[in-house]
Amino acid sequence: MESIIQIFVSGLTLGAMYAVGTVSLSLLWGAVNVLNMAHGALLVIGGYASWYTATRLGIPPFLGYFSAALVSATMAVLMYLLILRWLKGRRGADVLIIVATFAIAMILENVVLNVFGGYAVAQPAKLSGGVYISSVFVPAQNILIMVLALVLMALLALILQRTALGRSIRAVAQNSQAAVLMGIKVQHTYIAVYAIAGAFAGFSGVLWSSISTLSPTMGFDPMLKAFVICVAAGLGQIGGALAVAILLGLAEAAIQYYVGVRFALPFLLLAVVALLIVRPQGLFGIHGKARQ
Amino acid sequence: MKKESYIVLPILAVLCIALPLFYGDRYVIGQATVALIWATVALNWNLVFSMAGVFSLAQLAFFAVGGYTLAVLNGHFGISTWIALPVAGLVTMMVGMLSGAACLRLRGAYVALLTLALSQALYLLIVTDTACFRTEGGNCIPFTGGSRGLSRYEDFGFREFLPYPVSHIGDYGLAAALLIVSLFVAILVSRSPFGLGFRSIRDNEQYARARGLNRFRFQLSVFAISAAFTGMAGALYAGHFRVMGPNVLRLDVMLFVFAMIVVGGGLKIWGPLLGAAIITVLREVSVSFDSWQPTILGGIMLVVILLAPQGVSGLLALVDPRQRAGSRLERRKREGI
């Protein structure tokens, strides 16, 4: 019983964090067809923005979540305006975009390494203490992560379903040319998508670093997990990605508990590879999209 | 990729022979050896991109498999490095075909993500490997050497039968030979009906399939060839440095090799070789900015992608009037004029 609670607590925490990070990737893929290899770097930038404002500028630590979202969103928009905008519509654009975001990731992480140093630091935007659920200690930060993830998901759903911006994002995702003809300002919508995706990435960076530590290379593992989730759910399927994120978090916690920490990623990958051989478009993907 | 001519082969051979004759310096030859090894990886990686049309990021995993095969066979089982070298090629070919079979059912971005995840899983498994495979002098040595890597094994033994001042030429010659053979095979494949099949699949898959070409089988063969040479390059790397660690699976190494393809340009078969030369020279020049090197590399890649998406070899091709006319025609076709 105790072990089951333990697995559920860490599994749901992981799942909640995966969900926040995955939304960023999934949104960019689904709405603007960009596979963002700089996702991990945006996480790192967000984590350090929170740390910097709290320890160096003396702003209350919990506001770090906002500074992280702001800085990462700005970075994502800059990334689009300065570089990715020019690659759209070129021959082989999808591969060029992967390479370009990869290069951007390297630059960002290298700059963080040179400015803040390679030592892992603790994230100040973090709750201490916790509660007991029948002798299992649940840290308050884990609860905060789950609550924040829920709030963020609700917020995103609200934006996408109920606002004019959300409608134009969905229109651009479906058919950007038709969207132009309907008078939607596609350029503005693109910028908004990058800003939202960046903000989610920055936020998720603070969440990740709050339960582990902050270092220039901390973004890679969450990015990889987000990729795996996106692929398993079907690229661009935001709702499906959430379900898979929670499922994967629970599965990972169970494997870590029963088999060993080092086997979690290989096991998950095997499962995803097996899934993709049966369903190349992912669990929720539309058939034919993965094979084009 | 157009029909490649064999002329690049003698040019490469002459350059490889000329370098030690004019700059016999130990340091230069050492760096050139490593550059030749990376050039082999870049060449074969580009083969997967441009001929099979598969955006795989597993190339350095193949490189690592080859290197570890040599280190394990020689270090743990005492098998000669000269036997381990071709065995590494074979083992990597099998691994390449296996992972290819899993990945090739997918397209574009999915392949990139899965292959990246596979190589990261390999990295994690090696780094966290602590179970003793054997003990030597009280030291526990895991099968893969763990995060410290494997180091107690032999090199190719050129020191014994080459006289002192030229003993370092041995590894260099071996690396050059591997690159030349690999380039020969790449050109052969691109010129053969086999290669034409690849291109037709890449350019218009539905038509190619209607003509009875099997995409899966073609792509799997390219994966196998490319993995075999990359594995041997890895084995050469392991034998040259006499240490094999998981660091070759790190992202910055991947970016480093990737930059060779981007900067050199993947449209020409010799593009990645030119890229390898440019990146190696750049790295030597910028050695004083050591900690900023990823930024410099990334910046160069961005500039090249934005201004010359076909790389330096693509720019050189523009000088050729026939190509220029061709590309003008192509552009008009694209713009529908």
Task: Report helical residue fraction of chain B.
Answer: over 70%
What class, by secondary structure content of chain B? mainly alpha
Q: What's the overall geometry of chain A?
A: globular
Q: Which CATH-level-2 architecture of chain A?
A: Orthogonal Bundle
Structural class of chain A: mainly alpha
Largest β-sheet summary of chain A = 2 strands, antiparallel
Order of helices and strands of chain B: HHHHHEEHHHHHHHHHH
Total number of domains of chain B: 2
Number of strands of chain A: 2
Radius of gyration of chain B: 20 Å
Largest sheet of chain B: 2 strands, antiparallel
Q: Please give the CATH class of chain A.
A: Mainly Alpha
Mean pLDDT of chain A: 85
**Quaternary structure type:** heterodimer
Quote the CATH topology of chain A.
ABC transporter involved in vitamin B12 uptake, BtuC
SSE ordering of chain A: HHHHEEHHHHHHH
Tally of distinct domains of chain A = 1
Give, in spatial order, the strands making up the sheet with the most strands of chain A: 1-2
Throw out a few tags for this protein.
heterodimer, A: about 290 residues, mainly alpha, ABC transporter involved in vitamin B12 uptake, BtuC, two-stranded antiparallel sheet, about 5% strand, globular, B: about 325 residues, 2 domains, about 70% helix
Question: What does this entry look like structurally?
Answer:
The complex is a heterodimer of chains A (292) and B (337). Chain A is mainly alpha-helical. Chain A has a single domain (2-278), classed as ABC transporter involved in vitamin B12 uptake, BtuC, CATH 1.10.3470. Chain A is built from eleven helices and two strands. Chain A has helices at 2-32, 39-55, 64-87, 93-116, 140-162, 164-174, 176-181, 186-211, 220-233, 238-258, 264-278; strands at residues 130-133, 136-139. Chain A has a two-stranded antiparallel ribbon with strand order 1-2. In chain A, a hairpin with a 2-residue loop joins strand 1 and strand 2. In chain A, 51% of the residues are buried. Residues 288-292 of chain A have low confidence and may be disordered. With 337 residues, chain B is an all-alpha fold. Chain B folds into two domains: 8-248, no CATH class; 250-337, no CATH class. Chain B is built from 15 helices and two strands. Chain B has a two-stranded antiparallel sheet. Chain B is globular. The mean pLDDT of chain B is 82. Chains A and B meet through helix 3, helix 4, helix 9 and helix 11 of A and helix 5, helix 11 and helix 13 of B.
